[in-house]
Structures are given as C-alpha cells and as structure tokens.
Amino acid sequence: MTAKIVIPTLKEIDQAARQFLDTYSGYRKFALSGEMGAGKTTFIRALCRQLGVTDTVTSPTFAIVNVYSSPTAGPVYHIDCYRIKNITEFYDIGYEEYFFNAHYCFIEWPEIIDNILTDAFVRISISHGENNERIISE
Fold this sequence. Notes:
Oligomer: single chain
Strand order of the largest sheet: 1-7-6-2-5-4-3
Number of helices: 4
Helix content: 10-25%
Radius of gyration: 14 Å
Structural class: alpha/beta
CATH architecture: 3-Layer(aba) Sandwich
CATH class: Alpha Beta
CATH superfamily: P-loop containing nucleotide triphosphate hydrolases
Distance between the termini: 8 Å
Strand content: 25-35%
Number of domains: 1
C-alpha cells in the first residue's frame, strides 16, 4: 500500500489525520521521518485528536516516551528517538512494551532504531511541498 496525503495548510491537518487513519485502518505502528520542522509532532497531535486523546500531546524529545490515553483507542505511545545515541539506549527504555501490543505507537526520528522496527511498522515520510504544504507519504 502506498499512500500520499497532501496537507495544503494547517487548517486541513485534522482532515488529513482522519484520512491517514482510514487509509491505514489495519495498522497501529508508525515510524515518521522528516527533517526538523517538517511537522512530525504536529501531525501526531492531529492523529491523537482523531483517536480521541484528550491529554496534551507534546514532543517527547526529553522524556523519550509519552503515553496518552484515549477512551476508544486505549493507550497511545509517542516515542521520539532524536536524543537516542545508540540502539542499546533504546533497549534500556523497555521498548518491548510499546512495540508488542495492539495499541497505537508513533515514533519520530526512527532512523537510529530502524533495524529493530518490525514489519508491523509503517514507515512514513513527512516533507515540505510547494507553498509550505506538507506531504505525507509511505
């Protein structure tokens, strides 16, 4: 499955998040790549709104993992690997808890852990398009 979603402006991000979740309705694990400022956290925030998360969704850059709750989706895991220096450091956070369950898991900056991402993860790229639009693609 190859999907491409264009988000012309921030006003359309919730609609794009709904389209994304509908497109990948059989999946719960996503690895989101993109340059700094591409909108990874902003898109994950929109995805969480669509999943019914009422917690404040923030970048887990310093905490590494944020766990949000959704009355319909259960726990939603948001992981940021930007500060992870090596794979051993990632093992130490107890990644199995986040990888091997039926809950949503969104990972930013997954490149350092790419070799342990299972086939359950959909690799997504977020990039800038023309006129400041964002392009979500597999």
